[in-house]
Design brief:
Blueprint lengths: L5 E3 L2 E6 L2 E10 L2 E8 L4 E7 L5 H10 L10
Antiparallel strand pairs: 1-2, 2-3, 3-4, 4-5
């Protein structure tokens, strides 16, 4: 799969910036959105864009890659 994760029940399941994230994105010409729920770091990133697809996905990925990396739990 192009995003490097798994897909089930409408959600992508992947690791981003060391955090386990689930979410979904999509759109059509002129609008798109992306949702990433990063469970390990307790952050949720939601992006909506009035642009062609993948714009919101690129912005969400940019944000998630700059979130604090979750600490390792013993």
């Amino acid at each position: 799969m192009p995003f490097g994760g798994r897909y089930a029940y409408g959600f992508e399941d992947r690791t981003m910036n060391g955090s386990h994230c689930v979410g979904h994105g999509g759109g059509s010409p002129g609008m798109n959105g992306e949702l990433d729920i990063c469970q390990d770091s307790t952050y949720t990133v939601a992006v909506l864009a009035n642009m062609d697809p993948e714009a919101a996905g690129h912005i969400a990925e940019f944000i998630v890659n700059r979130l604090p990396v979750p600490s390792v739990k013993p």
